[in-house]
Amino acid sequence: MDNVDKPSVLHIKTDHKGDINCIAFSDRYIASCSSDKSVRVYNLDNSLSELPYSPLLGHTYFVLSCAFSPCGTYLATASMDGHMQVWQTSNGKRYADYTHPEGVDLRTVAWSSPPFVAVGAADGTVCLWDTASQDRRLVRYWRAHDMDCNTVTALCFTPDGRWLFTASTMGDAKLWPVLPATDSSPLYPGEAHEGGVLAAQFAARITHSESKGVAYKLVTGGGDNAVKLWQIYPDKLKEFKLISTLIDGGHEGPVQSVCFSPTDESILATASIDRSVIIWNVTQSRLLWKLEKHTLIVNCVAFGPRGDLLASGGMDKKVVIWSTNKINQPGCSDNSIITNQMKNHYLRVCDWSINDVIHWLSENGHESHEDTFKRNEISGKELLCLNIDNLDTQLGIEVFAHRKQLSDAIERLKSSDKHDRSIPDEFICPITQEPMVDPVLLPDGYTYNDVLFKIG
Questions:
Q1: Measured between alpha carbons, how far is 408 from 414 in angstroms, rounded to an integer?
Q2: pTM for this structure?
Q3: Cα separation of 233 and 217, whole Å?
Q4: Peptide bond into 55 cis (omega under 30)
Q5: Which of 65, 178, 297, 307 fits a disulfide with 109 by CB distance 3.0 to 4.6 angstroms?
Q6: Which of 170, 177, 265, 255 minimizes the C-alpha distance to 220?
Q7: Radius of gyration over alpha carbons of the chain, in Å?
Q8: What is the pLDDT of residues 4-23, one digit of tens each?
Q9: What is the Cα–Cα distance from 293 to 312, expressed in whole angstroms?
Q10: Where do the H-state alpha helices sit in 326-422?
Q11: Which residues pair with residue 213 across a beta bridge?
Q12: pLDDT digits (tens, 9 = 90+) for 424-455
């Protein structure tokens, strides 16, 4: 296929003695959890060596889900034993142990920033904990899905942490406000997949326009063998819009896991009961590669933080690590409108991730405070709340000159964030709702992405 080299196998891990149920990446580590009740953690370097404290042995039943905190300091694991445990990645020590109020099986876990952790349970309930508070309190506990035998099978936060998506074995999907001021009712599109929603993930990029407000892109996989792309407008339009369905020539069984590339959201990986992993170009609705290295059901797939690695795990007890650094699609190069300069144009400071804040510190000569900001998991929202006083009282930055420099830089950010830096509507394709790579004016008077009319 043009400009695309097939991913190659770098390594196969065979340390687990049971099914691989979930794989997660941080900037430094790869974690896998298994039905053998263990969690294994590996270095994300050329050695891919297992850490001295691995495996983590704290659960008494199958471990079904794992997720790193945004800065990689902690690893959360959810198990059918009803416990969600949080581990320190620096030494493997258990930081906290949370139990579902009714002791119900936990099926999926997700982190947000500020440091909230959400878990979905087998009875359709969701728990939201604040891991940074002194008492590590349960912030919310509610029934997200009402029907009997309705397990929460998919759960993920929007990139800015404002909303939580949940879905179930009955196929219904909902978008909940994380901390509702008054109305806690969800945005509800109805049945998202026949046969249940089995996986979901938001793309990292948030778009915004005056007419439509904030927009999030979501991918879901289901028991109907389909992969679906959605655009969600929770603020102004209150709309949950299906963009496209990827099914032709794709999976021949239920889709167990989905994952956007963190560096190019036109690239998507999916895993299925049919024993395969598929790499898609979602902009072109095109299957790029079907990877068939597993001998049994593939339960999970995840991209590495730089998009150059992909890991998959399944019932064959293997973690397969692939090289994906040669995936380079036409229209997704540096000539695309989606460049770092354009990202800075539409990504408001309040939407910055922790890594964005760290990058900002480095660019502005404050490298000495990077560890402090990482340790306290300061994202864009928290950054805008900092001032010369709480930089000392909350972050422990005692040198007045440093605090003054930081607070002045933050004030400049606050000023710039007041201006609307969204992508103008004329740069958004009305079909895909994506920034256009090669815009073309058609007779209907609208501008579209030319790549849509070149397929086939």
A1: 10
A2: 0.74
A3: 9
A4: yes
A5: 65
A6: 255
A7: 21
A8: 578 999 999 999 999 999 99
A9: 9
A10: 340-346, 354-363, 370-375, 380-383, 390-393, 400-417
A11: 209
A12: 444 455 444 455 544 544 444 444 455 444 44
